[in-house]
Amino acid sequence: MVLFAQYRDAKFPVAYRVYKGKSTPTPTTLAREMLRPIPDFIRSRFRIRVWADSGFEASVFLAVVRRL
Length: 68
What we know:
Blueprint: E1 2-7, E2 10-16, H1 27-35, H2 40-45, H3 58-67
């Protein structure tokens, strides 16, 4: 998972998480953990877009993203 910031043509990675397989946090959980710490001033000033394939945890992932 990689969280990118983009401003016009400039795009750069901000955070990343690595899925380590069975018995570890799922990719959806890792993505939620990356989105949560985005500061409120960034959320209010910029448009946040999430492009993701949430797989089997779609409803949980979408609920968290909408709440954020």
